[in-house]
Amino acid sequence: MKKSIRLLVLVGLCLFAGVVPYAQSDDDGSEDCAMCHEEVAAAMAETIHGITKRGAPSCVACHGDGAAHMDEGGDPSLISKPTGTAGVQLCLECHGQTQAMFSVRSAHADTSIDCNACHSIHNPDHGRRALLKEDTNPLCASCHAGQANSFRRPYGHRLDLGGLDCASCHDPHAGAGERSLRVNRAGEGPCVDCHAEKRGPFAFPHVSGVTGDCMSCHQPHGSTNPMALTRSNVSQLCLECHSRIVPPDTLGSQTPSSHNLRDPRYRNCTTCHVAIHGSNTSPALLK
Amino acid sequence: MNNRTITFVAITILVLAGFGVPRAQAQSTHFDIELGYQWVDVDGDEDLYRTQINQSTGFVLKGFSLNHINSSGDAKFADNFRIDASGFGGNPAGRFRLWAGLGKIYRFRLFYSQFENFSALPAFANPEIDNGVTPGQHTWNRDRQTLDVELELLPNRVVTPLIGYRRNVIDGPRQTTYRVGQNEYRLSSDLEETEQEIYAGITFKAGSFFGTLIQGWREYEAKDRLSLAPGEHFGNIGVPILGVDQNIDDFSRSMTSTAETPVTTANVQGKIGDQVDVALSYVRADLEGEASSSEMLSGSLVSFRINRFFQGLDQTVSSRTDNPYWRAEGRFKVHLGESVRLDLGLEENHRSLEGWSLISTLYLDTLNFGGHDPQDIQDLVNAHNGYERDDQIVTGRLNVDNLGPMVLWAEAGYKKTDLRLSQDVSQIVTPGGQQGIYDRTTNILGAGAALVFNKSRFSVDINNESADDVIVRTDFDNRLRMRARIDFTPAKWLRILGTAEYIDTSNGSSGVGYNATTDHYAVDLNIEPTENLSFRLAWDDYSTDTRMPILIPQTLSPAESIFSENGTLLEGGLLWRISVVTLDLGYSTFDNEGTFEFDMKRAFFRIGVDVTDHWAISADYENNDYSEKVLELAQYDATRYGVYLRWHR
Predict the structure, then answer these.
(1) Which residues neighbour B94 within 8 Å (Cβ) at sequence distance 6 or greater?
(2) Using the beta-carbon criterion (under 8 Å), do A17 and B153 form an inter-chain contact?
(3) A159 and A170 in contact (C-beta within 8 Å)?
(4) Could you tell me which residues come within 8 angstroms of residue A279 by beta carbon, excluding any fewer than 6 positions away?
(5) Residues of A in contact with B389 (CB under 8 A)
(6) What angle do CA A119, A125, A128 make, to 5 degrees?
(7) Which residues of A105-141 are buried (b: 16+ CB within 10 A; e: fewer)?
(8) pLDDT digits over B534-573, tens only?
(9) Which of A137, A170, A191 corresponds to the end of one domain?
(10) Chain A contact for B222 (CB, 8 A cutoff)
(11) Which of A221, B48, B288, B622 is most buried by its number of CB atoms within 10 A?
C-alpha cells in the first residue's frame, strides 16, 4: 500500500507540471556578435548551446552587453570574459543541478579548477560529448597522471578497451562519496551498480556493509592480484584481519589451525570460501 | 555467432541508421565512424592473456559519434540528437549512448554497455599448482550487459516528470569448488543474475530552490545450477581417510535468491539570501531478500563434524534478510566575502541487517568410525544474525580564492561509526571476534594551497586522519597523506606534469602494530616542437611497504605479513602529422618488484592516411609482453594488428 501511495503522490505532482519556462531571450543583440566573431558564432550554433529557443545562453548571457566593446572597435577590455570562480558561477546559473553534486569533499569545487578547465564552450570537437576538451580518460590523466598510471598493473578495470572511463565511477563535479566517487540514488557507491550480485543482503554477511567498504579489500584501479585485491596473495589479506595475536577487541575470528599454509589450497582462502562477499546458505561462506 | 559478434552487428546497423537524420538550414550533423578488422595472435598462456586483455580476432568498432543539432526552432522530433558507441566486436567491452531532446518537450537518454568477463589463471584457486596442473579451479566466462534509460518530459519547467529503467544482467558458465566431507570437488555452474529497477519522479523549481523527488523499485533475481564437473568424482584429495575412499558419484545443487528494494530519493537546493547556498538530500532504501537452496549428493564421504562416514547428503536452506538503510545529508556554502567561503557538510546514515537462515542437512546411511551404528542423521541450524551501523560525518572547509594567484583551503571534521553486531556463530569453527559493540571516531585535518598563473598550476595538500579505536585490525589509527602537483607550461612547446604523493598509515594497537607507507611519483613531459609533432615521455615510480604481525594458522606462531611493491613505468611516444599522414607510436615498460614480481612491455604503432577530407584509412600494431618472475608458466606475448576505415563529416 505504501508503494501505491507513493506512486499516487508522484503522479499527482506530475499532473501539476507547470508551464512557466526557464528561458532566456535570444533576441538580446547577440546576433550582432556574429558580425565579427563569425566562426565562434557558427561553432556555437552547432552545439547544444546553439539552441537558444530552448533556453540556451546567448553571447550576451555570458559576456554581457557588448555595446561598448563594439563601439570601441572591438576593444577586448570592454567585454566580460568570465573565468575562475566567476565563470563557474555563470555556468551554474543554468547548470545548477551540477552544483547539487558539489560537496565539501570536492577538490574540483574548491580550488582553481573551473568549468573551462575541462569543457570547451566555443570550439567543440563534435566527436566528444558534453563539450569536453578531450576524451574523458586522457582529460583526467592530464592532471591525475599517477592515478592513470595505476591502471597499468595487470589486473583491475581496463580503461582502454571501450567499456569504462574515469567518469564511470568518479563524478568530476564531486559526488557525495569519498574520493569523488559516484553515489547512486540509493546512496550506494559505484561498485554495486555493476557488481549487483555483491550487494546482498546476505544472511551471513562478510565485510562490506558491516564495516568498511569494497576498498577495504580491493584496489579497483589496478592490482597485482587477479581479483584486484590490495595484496597479491589472498591468504595474506585474510590473515591480516583473521589473526588474534593478543585477543584484542577487534572484529575478525582466528583462522583454524587445520588451515596449513604449506598446502596451496590454504594459501588461496577463496578456493573453499567461494562466497566471500556474503552467503545466504553457508555461515562459513563456503557456497 | 557469439555475443560479441551479435552485438557488433546490431550496434553497427543502429549507428549507420543514424545517418538517415535529415538535414536542413540551421542544422548541423557531424558524424565520425571508424570501423575495421583486427587480428590477435598469442604466444604463451592464452588464458592469462584473456583474463587480462581479452581482445580477439574480428571486426571492431573503434569509435562512432553522431551529433545532430537543429537550432532553427522548427524541429518536430528532436532538436538535438547524439549517439556515441565504441568497443563492440573484437574488444571485451563496448558501450552505446544515445541522447535526444526537443526544446521544452522532452529529453531522452539511453546507455547500454557490454562486458565480457573471462578468468582462467594458472595460480588462482589452484590447490594443484605444486603439481603443475593449470589453470586453477575457479574459472569463468560470463557476459555482463547493462541498460539505463531515462525520459524527462517538459524539461526546464516548474515541474518536470521523469521516468527511467535500469537493467543489469550477468550470465554464463563458470567452474568453482565445493568443500564437503574431507574433500573438495570441482563444480560446473550456470549462473544467471538479473537486476532491474524502474523509477519515476519529478524535478522541480520554485524561486531560487530546485530539487528532485524520485521513487524507484529495484528487484534482483539470481539462479545458479551446479553439478559435478566431468571426471571430478574423486575430488582434489584423492586419498582414503580412515581407510575409506572419498568420492562423489552424483551431485546437484540449485540456488535461487531474490531481493526487492524500494528506493526513495529526495533532494533540494537553493540559495538563502545572497550568502548561503544549501543542499539537502535524503535517501531511504529497504532491501528485503529471500534465498533457497537444495543440494543432493551421493558417494562415499566422511564428516568430522558428525564423526561419521556417510553415503549421501540432502540439504535444504531457506533464508530471509531485511536490510533497511537511510542517509541524510546537508551541505552549506557560506560566502563570507568575495573570496572567502565556508563549506559545511553534515551526513548521517544508518544501516541495519536482520538475517535468518534455516539449514537442514540430512546425512544418509551414516556409520561411525568403527563401521557400526548405521542411521540417517539430521543436522539443523537455525541462525539469526544482525547488525546495526550508524555513521555521522561532519566536515568544514574554509576556502580562500583569488589571493592574487593563490588559492588556499583548510578543513577539519570527523567521522563517527557505531557498530553493533550480533553474529550467530553456528557452524563457525573458531569462536571469537565475530560480534560486539564497536565505536570509532576519526578526526580529519587538512590544508592545501594552489598557485595558478598563466597556464600553470602548482598545488600542495596535506591530510591527517587520526582514530580513537579500530574495528578490524587493518583499520588505521593514524593516516598522513601529503601530495604535491605541478602542471607547468614554461614555453608553448613544453608542458610538465608531476605528482608526488606520500601516505603513511599505522595502527599501534596492542596485538596489531600495523604500518604501511606508500610513495608515488609521476612525471609526464609533453614536448611539441612544431604544431605537427609532439613527444611524450613519462616516468612513474610507485613503492609501498606494508607490515603487520599475523598468526600462522597451522602453528599459531606469530609472523610478519610483509607486502611490498616497487613498480617503475617508463613510457615514450610521438605523434607526427606529415601532410595527410599521421604516425602515432609508443613504447612502455612496467617492471614490478617486491611480493609479486612481473614485467610488462608494450609497443604500439599506428599510421593513418587522410585519403580525402572525409575518408581516412589506418593500420595499427600492438604488442604486449607479460611475464611473472615467480611462476614461469604465467607469461604471454600477444600481438594485435588491424586495418581500419574512417568516415567523418
Answers:
(1) A162, A163, B7, B8, B11, B61, B85, B86, B87, B88, B113, B114
(2) yes
(3) no
(4) A202, A203, A204, A285, A286, A287
(5) 209-211
(6) 70
(7) bbbbbbbbbbbbbbebbeebbbbbbebbbebbbebbb
(8) 999 999 999 999 999 999 999 989 999 999 999 999 999 9
(9) A191
(10) yes
(11) B48
Q: Quote the CA–CA distance of A26 and A24 in Å, as a whole number.
A: 6
| Count: domains in chain A | 2
Q: Cβ A14–B210 below 8 Å, yes or no?
A: no
Q: Which of A9, A15, A51, A194 to mutate to test the interface with B (most CBs of B within 10 A)?
A: A51
Helix and strand tally (H, E) in chain A?
A: 13, 2
- Residue B94 CB-half CA count within 13 A: 27
Whether the CB of B56 is below 8 Å from some CB of chain A: the reply is: no
Residue keyed to cell 577487541: A249
Using the beta-carbon criterion (under 8 Å), do A203 and B329 form an inter-chain contact?
no
Give the torsion sign (CA, A28, A32, A36, A40): positive
Q: Does B121 touch chain A (CB under 8 A)?
A: yes
Give a yes or no: residue A62 inside a domain.
no
Q: Which residues, other chains included, contact B68 with Cβ-Cβ below 8 Å and sequence gap of 6+?
A: B21, B27, B28, B29, B30, B78, B80, B81, B82
Among candidate residues A191, A211, A244, the one where a domain is terminated:
A191
| Domain span including residue A268 | 197-287
| Contact assignment for B126 to A264 by CB distance below 8 Å | yes
Q: Which of A19, A38, A29, A113 lies closest to A63, judged by CA?
A: A29
Q: What is the pLDDT of residues A233-273, one digit of tens each?
A: 899 999 999 998 876 688 888 898 889 988 877 888 988 89
A211 in the same domain as A165 = no
* A127 and A186 together in one domain: yes
Give domain status of residue A55, yes or no: no
Pairing of strands A278-279, A204-205: antiparallel
Q: Indicate the burial class of B248 (C-beta count within 10 angstroms; 0-12, 13-18, 19 or more).
A: buried
Exposed / middle / buried, residue A59 (Cβ in 10 Å: 0-12, 13-18, 19+): buried
In degrees, rounded to 5, the angle at the alpha carbon of residue A129 between the alpha carbons of residues A32 and B528 is 85
Residue A88 C-alpha, separation from nearest chain B C-alpha, in angstroms? 13
CA distance linking residue B612 with residue B617, whole number of Å = 10
Q: The dihedral of CA B381, B193, A176, A231: what is its sign?
A: positive
Neighbours of B130 (CB within 10 A): 10
Which residue reads 552485438 in cell numbers?
B7
**B59 and A CB contact within 8 Å:** no
Query: Residues of B269-281 as b/e, b for ≥16 C-beta within 10 angstroms?
Result: bbeeeeeebbbbb
What lies within 8 Å, CB to CB, of B418 at 6+ separation is B388, B389, B390, B391, B437, B438, B439
Whole-complex ipTM: 0.88
Closest CA to B290 of B317, B309, B270, B254: B317
Question: What's the CA gap between B150 and B214, in Å, rounded?
Answer: 12
- Does the distance separating the beta carbons of A265 and B65 come in below 8 Å? no
Q: C-alpha angle B365/B368/B374, rounded to 5°?
A: 35
pLDDT tens-digit series, residues B15-60: 666 555 555 456 788 889 999 999 999 999 999 999 999 999 999 9
Number of H helices, E strands in chain B: 2, 26
* CA B639 and chain centroid, separation: 27
pTM over 0.95: no
Helix (H) or strand (E) holding B582: strand B581-594
Please write the tens of the pLDDT for every residue from B609-638. 999 999 999 999 999 999 998 888 899 999
Residue A29 maps to a domain: no
Q: Please give the Cα distance from A255 to B519 (Å, whole number).
A: 32
Residue A43 three-state SS: helix
What backbone torsions phi and psi does residue B24 show, to the nearest 5 degrees?
-150, -175
Enumerate residues 6+ apart whose C-beta is below 8 A from B337. none
Q: Do B4 and B57 touch, CB atoms closer than 8 A? A: no
